[in-house]
Amino acid sequence: MIKLWLTPEEKLENQTLADWFTPDFFSKSAFWYVWSSMYAFWPDHALIEGRRYLLRYSEINPANLHGILHYKYNQYDSVAKPIHVWLERHGVRFRTGTIVTDIETADKDGETLATGLKFRDADGEHRLRLTRDDLVFFTNGSLVQNSTHGDTNTVTKFDRNAADRGCFTVWEKMAARSPKFGKPEVFLSNVDRSGWISYYVTIKGDATFFDYMEAKTGNAPNTGGLTAIVDSPWRLNFALFSKTFPDQPDAVQTLQGYAQIMTKPGSYIKKLMPECTGAEIFGELLYHCGLDDDQIKSIVSHSIVHTYAMPYIVAEFMPRRVSDRPKVIPDGCVNLAFLGQFAEVPGEVVFTTECSVRSAMMAAYGLSGLKKPMIPLPESYFDVRVLALNLKIMGSKEEFTPEDLRALPASEEIVPLISQVLNSAKLP
Amino acid sequence: MRNYARISAPPPEGIERKSAHIVGGGIAGLAAAVFLVDDAHMPADRITLYEALDVTGGALDGAGDQQTGYTARGDREQHESMECLWYLCGKIPSLESPGMTILDLRVERARAHQRQVQIDGKPGGAVFRGRRAHVG
Lengths: 428, 136
What we know:
The structure holds two protein chains of two kinds. Chain A is an alpha+beta fold. In chain A, 34% of the residues lie in helices and 19% in strands. Chain A has helices at residues 2-6, 17-20, 23-28, 30-39, 47-56, 75-90, 167-177, 185-188, 191-194, 208-217, 278-289, 293-301, 353-368, 384-394, 402-410, 414-423; strands spanning 68-70, 93-96, 99-108, 111-121, 124-129, 134-139, 148-151, 196-204, 227-228, 236-241, 252-259, 303-310, 336-339. Chain A has a six-stranded antiparallel sheet. Chain B contains four helices and six strands, in the order αβαββββαβα. In chain B, the strands form two sheets. Chain B has a two-stranded parallel sheet with strand order 1-2. In chain B, strands 3-4 form a two-stranded antiparallel ribbon. The termini of chain B are far apart. At the A-B interface, α4, β1, α6, β2 and β3 of A face α1, β1, α2, β2 and β3 of B.
């Protein structure tokens, strides 16, 4: 773990977590259970991302996860909708139902210029000619691209159509024309690894499950975050909510979750998760929580389940090189920026809203010429107090003894890394 | 010093004749539009956002009602160190609480408590053990 902290990410390219850690780390350590369920990591995910998470959130003590914040309602009503309304009131023009099919670029005198925007709407195909005063901000990937929907009584199938995948397809076209736009195929070629199914349950008029969980855990709904069921073959996760929609009556309860393993049969429902209806998926969850057959049948009969198969939900975690994602503003680009989970934001971690917003800030300030410094990345790993705390957690120690400290730098591997870090130290 | 430069950033030269084409209506595109309007002083009517679906928000979704069931494809957890996100949220008024921003309405859930709960399982980890031991 310490070696990973000290090794620069350029030396970790294309590796997975399983390449670095021993099998015991994944099967026995409490650290891994908490960490993987909190951040949705899996052993075959990118080591570069794992290291970034360790550093970026080094101040979060896994034994005491204070500071985890939620919105009052679901993330659409709490965040996306108010921003949309604010923008509309200011006069920003929204063209919904409009599919951008290509962004054309031209290289000249060492500069790269976005020269055309092709899109399709209800009126047909269009091409907009762009000048250098037309700034293009392109989100070149979406975690929910090509997601499909099932419900209580239907099964949702993964959409594996690689020819038409929206923003990814536009990115693929651009990347085929220039290496500085990255390598989408690194992230998009294995739906079995990058996809999972999530479920959302609405329970009406049956408080059995929530009452049962409250009695068992001592927690009221909405006071806990996403929780992993370690013994579920699907590796089910769930979170109970009390009220997540503004118009939701108090007697209507909601819960949400997902599973990480799509290739093993369940314990109660002896099928793979992708073969199951929403009712079956919810039944499997209730079984693992300890409810009996009659209770499960009754609770499910009072529930509406929505399921989503998302083929690219963890595509951003696929093992990669740093250059496989385009820079937010690729070298030489004067009016083109890449945003979101598949743009390279140095030091920042994927699968977070923060990553998207930070990329947007870099792009907006950079292309507009605004001389406003970025909000710096928190670099808490330079804080000796944070380092001390992490060393204690990793070593499961209350206190360091002189022997412990001598044992640390004695390692033949660590010493050269420490000297490398010390010698390359520079102020931001 | 950094903070002074953040507080006193004048409009970039020529911003009034520039236009923005934002491709994708997820949180990244929405945030870019806010930063262009509010920080970079780009006239809002020179910004166009293109979105394939009929609704913006991307992965930040949430829909439904009690008849058809509420729904969302996922839920993100936030941390106080997500400073770009909070900077953005501090600019946006709440739709239901006048005088409040969406930053004011975030809530902290006492997650640490639940993490340490064990059900039918061995002590030690801070995760939920199901009713059956699946692996040894």
